[in-house]
Amino acid sequence: MKRLFVGLSILMLFLISLPVYAGAPLDAVKINADQVLDILRDPKLKAASAKEMKKDKLRAVYVNMFDEVELSRRSLGMKWNKLNTAQRQEFVKLFEQVLEKAYADRILSYTNEKIEFTKESMISGNLAEVRTKVITASKEIPIYYRVILKGGTWKVYDVTIENVSLVQNYRTQFNDILAKNTPEQLLEILRKKVKAQ
Amino acid sequence: MKSLSLAVVLFVFIAVGCAHAPHGASSPAPSTATSQPQPILVASNSDEVPPTPPKATVKSPETPVKSEKGSLDNDASLDYTEEVKEEEKVTIADPIEPFNRAMFQFNDKLYFWLLKPVAQGYKVVVPEDARVSVKNFFSNLGFPIRFLSCLLQADFICAATEVGRFTVNTVWGIGGLMDPASSKDLNLQKQDVDLGQTLGVWGVGHGFYIVWPVIGPSSPRDSFEIVGEYFLYPVSYVSPWYAWFGVRGLEEVNRTSLSIGDYEALKEAAIDPYVALRDAYVQYRWKKVKMKRGAQMEELAPGGVRMER
Predict the structure, then answer these.
(1) What does the alpha-carbon distance between residue B129 and residue B56 come to, in Å, rounded to a whole number?
(2) Are residues A158 and A74 in contact, defined by beta-carbon separation less than 8 angstroms?
């Protein structure tokens, strides 16, 4: 009887730990990256007039793939705490628009590149890094994604291209600006940049 | 005799099995990767475990999008707390910023007014394969500097790889136009080394930030690469001066033609392009030194599992 009980409780332990499978970080990135490639290679969207449609589809993938609040928070670092909630929300929106304007056309210009997923490693319990390589005709570009586990999904909060972290790069810039300006002035700079693009 | 051979077979079997296991764990196959996060989650915070298998959540794009709207307010009100362990700060002193900003402007104009238009024309005339060959040729000539850097870093595998590459590519790669050495069979990859990095590996710091005209972002330490190139890069010995200028020009135009759009993207994405480029330079150089200074330093273990606390 005792033995059965022990056996059962061990079995229970196994059963309980089953849902812990958090879906590998690598899979989460890969599913989204594959969707981007599908959009880029979709023959129905080949025409130049379909560019806006492609961008809309890319935006949907982006929202699903990235944790934009986490990305913004880390890009501001300690300075994030100087913004009030309304300012933070506007910052997240503006920052997203800046990134979209800068990278959408760049991503749309890719067609026959290959993405190779090389490695996945845990940083801590809810942070991981997924390493990929984009292979073009003339070179290989290492792109690493940092992902965070929130509410059951892994979402990207930093992208490191050729060893340059996007979040760190922006943090340096925002810190430089906020050293001399108020948060409101930073938002004004971003508003102007979004308008000018 | 029979039992001995049996023991040998058993030993080989076990040894292969042991050696194989960690290799398989670090392989890119997603199936093995799935199992990795499990022990960590169990160990760290079992109460925050997601109730549903997230595979489904990842696959359906609509569900998280909807919830995002609502969570934005809550999420945005969370303060930022410094995670000391996660990232080290990489910065560089910039005492001569006004000069550097002027040089940045100069290089920017040089790119948009001269280098880019020429490279675009060149790109139209010369097919991509040929441009890659030209790039390989110049890269092959960079062998002496890379070889010396490997030796000065006491990295003899790196030095041997460079010698092998240079021999193979010069002889079978038609004087370096092709790169058979980095093919799958030989797998002699170009070593990512230079003299500034070598000084960094020795523990020499950057000093401060300098933007050289034409050459671009650098520091006193990394400027050793410029000195090294003067003596060890064969193109430096081309004479008379206009021939040298022509060859260097071809090299630059060819390189630019393969990366048109990179600088534009960086500039477009930046709030302050000067600061963005400076930071990109520092991060890039820092990682390059760190990579060589010992993989054990802060690099994640190949198995990928590193516990906090």
Answers:
(1) 43
(2) yes
The pairs formed by A162-168 with CB atoms below 8 angstroms and a separation of 24 or more are: A162/B284, A163/B283, A163/B284, A163/B287, A163/B288, A164/B279, A164/B280, A164/B283, A164/B284, A165/B87, A165/B283, A166/A75, A167/A71, A167/A74, A167/A75, A168/B87, A168/B90, A168/B279, A168/B283
C-alpha torsion sign, points A79, A81, A82, A83 = positive
A137·B132 Cβ contact <8 A: yes
CA–CA dist A101, B270 (Å, integer): 11
Burial of B23 (0-12, 13-18, 19+ CB in 10 A): exposed
pLDDT, tens digit (0-9, with 9 covering 90-100), for B83-135:
644 556 788 999 999 999 999 999 999 999 999 999 999 999 999 999 999 99
Task: Note whether ipTM > 0.90 here.
Answer: no
Within 112-141 of B, beta carbons closer than 8 Å to A belong to 128-129, 131-132, 135
pTM: 0.74
Residue A27 with chain B: CB contacts under 8 Å: 30, 33-34, 55, 58
